[in-house]
Design a protein that fits this description.
homotetramer, alpha/beta, Rossmann fold, 8 helices, globular
Chain lengths: 178, 178, 178, 178
Amino acid sequence: MSIAIIYGGTRKEGNTEILTKHAIQGIEVEEFYLRDYRILPIEDMRHDEDGFQDRGDDYASTIKRVLQHDTLIFVTPIYWYSMTGTMKNFVDRWSHSMRDAAFPDFKAQMGTKEAYVIAVGGDAPAIKGLPMVEQFKYIFEFMGVEFKGYIIGKGNKPGDILEDKVALFQAEQLRKKL
Amino acid sequence: MSIAIIYGGTRKEGNTEILTKHAIQGIEVEEFYLRDYRILPIEDMRHDEDGFQDRGDDYASTIKRVLQHDTLIFVTPIYWYSMTGTMKNFVDRWSHSMRDAAFPDFKAQMGTKEAYVIAVGGDAPAIKGLPMVEQFKYIFEFMGVEFKGYIIGKGNKPGDILEDKVALFQAEQLRKKL
Amino acid sequence: MSIAIIYGGTRKEGNTEILTKHAIQGIEVEEFYLRDYRILPIEDMRHDEDGFQDRGDDYASTIKRVLQHDTLIFVTPIYWYSMTGTMKNFVDRWSHSMRDAAFPDFKAQMGTKEAYVIAVGGDAPAIKGLPMVEQFKYIFEFMGVEFKGYIIGKGNKPGDILEDKVALFQAEQLRKKL
Amino acid sequence: MSIAIIYGGTRKEGNTEILTKHAIQGIEVEEFYLRDYRILPIEDMRHDEDGFQDRGDDYASTIKRVLQHDTLIFVTPIYWYSMTGTMKNFVDRWSHSMRDAAFPDFKAQMGTKEAYVIAVGGDAPAIKGLPMVEQFKYIFEFMGVEFKGYIIGKGNKPGDILEDKVALFQAEQLRKKL
């Protein structure tokens, strides 16, 4: 099993990253820090005569590498009760890949994968993070990805997550499965 | 009452825009097409010694104008079961404005406003759009914005929304309130 | 198409009933006022040696008649952010029917049906009624019932619903489909 | 701190009860097994001239004892993606207590309490149990009860819950707080 970690955070070594590192300790993974790539918002050209146009950024090369893995772990701090805009832009672009001759089997390929979500939020995330979990559920459902589980931790200031014993324990349980 | 329409769509004259134009027919509003501005993802520098840095894009001038209105209408096609990345980036940046000396009363000012959401989706939006509505609810709640209502229409191909009689009726009812 | 209306309300001629009558005007339906039947809470005996026992109430005869219809309309005032306990007891009992020799094809039969939900609430139902809609979605999904749509109206005092123009319009649109 | 455990399950020693016993090991609590009381569905008489009528069952004496505690733990197996009908009937009756001269300060008294929810479900409860969590959130919010946390375990057959290590760990963490 080959694992891709897709980081949507915009702060280095934020709580969500710390929690994820705890989960993948000693496990071989490929890590994608989306903030280090140039990934533009989608421009919806589904209904244009010529269809979607290449946006000349890092999206295509990134998704190509992500596709080589079996397990995708989406890691995002909770910004405004959902994934970061940085991660959302990445997901939005899938609408292009689904119609891109360069990715002839995009949806079918994604449909063979399984996914986890790891998120940390500061404002009652166990409750107010639930719409985000449901959003991921619908995303995975649409793509045929199996949603294997999620961890929602609590943290605000740097390092807070180390106080969230349940999240750390869940990370350890996840490690055993990976 | 002064009204700002904040468009998150990336396609000109998409279904969500058609539905919104139906709602604001004959009403004076200021329109913000986010796709026409350069609004970068936030970089979370809350915990940096020097705090957030200016990103040199169109965000500050845009939010400044938005703030001058009493009623905010957030208009977004449903991309992957939530607002577009384009709109999410705009909202994410509020985290900076709340800590920006250039906007000393950002949260207090936002807290005087009322908001509506207009969205159109193609995949069972009356059900699968609900997590997005809840996200907006939490966003508004956090900012003290009064969430006055929402319209979720159904549409996929250009013009589909004109078949959604309930959404059109809701748009007309909204028009009477504006 | 044969239609069953399943009323969960405990007040005669409440707002939800008024809204539903508006939707079914001039249409032949069979109406089930659950409050008029004796339907006890389920006793979970799945794991007992002898399985579920007959509870000697009106459930079996009621569900038998409901099963004869193709379209089920679940009508409930929103009590504490979900269906009434009266209606919940009725649904809970399905767990027995699925294991009851008297209903050998219960799930398969349910799986041929389509359903609507009509609900009225007093406390911001367009938002706070959403978890109930999701519960119904999962219930129908589990049973293989097609969830064709829902109407959530707003009302508290008797007759309030007549002021909810959108709900009334939705009821009229539903009428055309039935 | 005085603790009431309110059990909504209808099977003795079900998974939810096992999980709860694990959480309250060695702690003094008062336990209410709702299945052992006769608690009828509410009859909504808010708008009747004479208001609600006493239903002559065990509700009043039960809620009176519950009110004497500071912390309420609601324990329910997930039936059809929400609390059991047995527990729902109990909660529905609060609408009467709020208008009952015998409970002059019902809402104010409830508003001093804090609450937890412990639930176990068999069908992807970490996802499909979320609407139930949101429903409890709104219930507590309405009453002014502080929602301190919840545990959702996974289990179907008797004893399954002992395999859910995360739920057991959460129960142990909860124990430390009680």
